[in-house]
Design a protein that fits this description.
The protein has 399 residues and is mainly alpha-helical. The protein contains 14 helices and no strands. It has a domain of 194 residues. α1 runs antiparallel to α2, α2 runs antiparallel to α5 and α4 packs across α5. The protein is globular and about 65 Å long.
Amino acid sequence: MPWSLRAILLRDLILDVVGVSAFLIHLGADLWLVSQYVLSGRYLWAALVLMLLGLASVALQVFSWVWLRADPAGLHSSQPSGRCLALLHLLQLGYLYRYMQGLQQGLLVWQQEVPSEFDLAYADFLSLDISMLRLFETFLEKTPQLTLVLAIMLQSGQAEYYQWVSICTSFVGISWALLDYHRALRTCLPSKPILGLGSSVIYFLWNLLLLWPRVLAVALFSALFPCYVALHFLGLWLVLLFWVWFQGTDFMPDPRSEWLYRATVATILYFSWFNVAEGRTRGRATIHLVFLLSDSILMVVTWVTQSAWLPRGIPLQMLLPVGGISFLLGLVLRLVYYCWLHPSYRREPAQVDGTRALYFLECSQLPQNRRTGHLAQNFFPKSRDEAALQWERRANGVL
């Protein structure tokens, strides 16, 4: 095996281990947070955290189970029987099973002296599903829980050490999930180079800096108006759900599960940008950014104009300016990334000789994650058109 390939496989294996460890650490932090709330007699807060954790877990099990049922027959030859898989998902262990399956496949590929094309493609297939599930778990559980913990801290006027642990792990996990998802999209398109270290750092930072003001605005509104935050979320969520439906998504294998996907995407859009339809994304991303910015400013203005104040000791005079500076800095880094650090579109040379064309026709028989691949083609329309042109040239070369 070439050293460069072995180094890439080792890097992916390490990232898989980090992903499993981060999931278990965050789960442990959640249970620790709940136990501390129960011991201190804050049963409502503990119930809210458990509710978010439970709803997110159920949604992830449904996604994982539907995808497994829709995968080609015989693809997962080494996995347990259907009844055993159904039991794992019923016990809320399907997401963890996905992690362990991807780790096992990555270890198998790394141990091989010359990995087979099928094993490499199957490892990519599993990692793409895990990346999508990680992104869904981030915005269905981590981000709402982060907002809840911040609202509790603002309302109570004190911050416990276990709350800071939850906040730090949530922020890092959210930004990492966005970066991992973006890198996963690029692995689906050979005409798109992977993100370099500098581009990855900037991408990680601008997502973190743009997310913080949004979470802060929602947390402030939740702390002062806990009875109205549910109505606010439901109203915006319905608008975003209609927008997602209007774009005609086609991600899941059947119409019923497609509505679960649309509901999840609407939840993501409540906090951050997520592209679901083909075409140019700049206009839709700008509309979404202006929409979220206007809504966040409205919530802050509503808080400022009220006579109710949060407990003393909360540096609100610092939080709001820091949130504004964070948004501006994140916006600048986002512009810097897309103007100068975004990997440029590279046109591959047209090679239509019989050997290379036969190789690509052989690759078409390997496992391909069409779910994430479809999202990648929507996000990078130029690469989709270029890929179609290349396949046509290679097919002509074979003929």
